[in-house]
Write a structure and sequence with these properties.
The chain starts with a helix and ends with a helix. 75% of the residues lie in helices and 0% in strands. The protein is built from 15 helices and no strands. The relative contact order is 0.09. Helix 9 packs across helix 14. The chain is mainly α. The protein folds into 2 domains: 161 residues, no CATH class; 194 residues, no CATH class. It is globular, with a radius of gyration of 25 Å.
Length: 363
């Protein structure tokens, strides 16, 4: 149903724009009107999809698609009524409040909620054509498990961060690396060389470069050089946009080279896996103000499903998007830590743009 898809995408776009400033520590907050609109929209669209657009789907499926919000609402209202309060009275009985009371941080709570809800959506997709009774039983078992688990932890006063850390050799070794700064310097120094090298080599070995891509690279190079000379134009923003564009262009050129992909795809995936590990280690142990939040967790979720996107048989746009996002995070980190006027990243950027422009305009 194209109408449902368009409405869903519009709501997702608006919600992500809001969530960018609602992530802890939040600068804007959503009231009852906004949350009711989102809940009503999600429920209505789920019903339309399962009972109108595709009648082969189980009509019980929205129970799993909206599993955690439904459980949270029913649990809170039932306990309020049981204790003699209004079902609409504000309190700290919601699932996220209970998780906070167990000693988890805001980031940990939101990540758990995202992960559980994502799991329910994946299960819903797998059982979308199953019998109604089976789906209902599955949701009931899930709800009972959550209620019993959380009530049990509350009863026995379980606290996540009271567990003493075991003095194992591996933990001691990691602590040694952290205190000496190796867990920060080593990933940073490797990425300082690896990212510019990837951009330059990728622009050299990739397939044919179109003329318009070469012209764009030339214009970006000239614009950056002028901005760097004048020192009045917001060079940092221009440089970041240019680096992101260059990274996405190299990822596209590599993925659109059939011969290169067939022989080197495995090594390319290994390279990006190494970049992700280096980024994760640096973010975990650095004292920089570069911090990931729950918005980045959503980006990771989207990246997991992007490989399913196929526009034609020649180019995997999902893979290009994943590689681009990984490069964006690495470039953001390197720019944050960059101190010199002409570091390897900036030199690599101009070399990449020069190579792309020459190949696109002259060959």
């Amino acid at each position: 149903d194209e109408v449902v898809v368009q409405i869903s995408l519009a709501i997702v776009g608006a919600t992500l724009g809001f969530l960018r400033f609602n992530t802890h520590p939040a600068r804007v907050f959503m009231g009852d009107t906004g949350s009711q609109f989102l809940g009503f929209s999600a429920g209505t669209l789920a019903i339309i999809v399962t009972q109108k657009s595709n009648t082969a789907l189980s009509p019980i499926l929205p129970l799993l698609v909206l599993g955690l919000p439904i459980l949270d609402t029913l649990w809170v209202m039932i306990t309020r009524i049981r204790d003699g309060y209004s079902p609409f009275a504000p309190d700290r009985r919601h699932i996220h409040h209970r998780l906070l009371d167990l000693g988890l941080s805001q980031y940990e709570v939101v990540t758990i909620v995202y992960a559980v809800q994502l799991g329910l959506i994946l299960i819903a997709y797998q059982v979308r054509y199953a019998m109604d009774g089976g789906i209902a039983l599955l949701y009931i078992l899930f709800s009972i498990s959550v209620v019993v688990l959380m009530n049990g932890m509350k009863k026995y006063q379980y606290h996540f961060h009271r567990i003493p850390q075991m003095e194992r050799p591996l933990i001691k070794f990691i602590e040694y690396l952290r205190h000496t700064g190796l867990m920060v310097r080593v990933p940073m120094n490797i990425l300082k060389v690896l990212i510019p090298l990837f951009l330059v080599v990728g622009s050299l070995v990739s397939g044919r470069v179109d003329r318009d891509v070469g012209m764009l690279a030339l214009l970006m190079s000239i614009t950056l050089l002028v901005a760097l000379k004048l020192k009045r134009i917001p060079f940092y923003i221009l440089e970041k946009v240019t680096l992101f564009t260059s990274a996405a262009s190299v990822a596209y050129l590599l993925e659109s080279s059939p011969g290169l992909v067939s022989c080197c795809e495995r090594y390319l995936y290994l390279l990006f896996g190494v970049i992700v590990i280096l980024l994760a280690v640096w973010v975990r142990f650095s004292g920089s103000h570069f911090r990931l939040n729950t918005m980045d967790f959503l980006v990771v979720i989207i990246m997991v499903f992007l490989p399913r996107i196929t526009v034609n048989d020649d180019v995997s746009w999902g893979t290009i998007a994943i590689e681009s996002v990984i490069l964006f995070y690495a470039i953001e980190m390197l720019m944050l830590e960059g101190k010199r006027r002409w570091d390897l990243l900036r030199i690599g950027m101009f070399m990449t743009l020069s190579i792309i422009s020459i190949r696109g305009l002259l060959f």
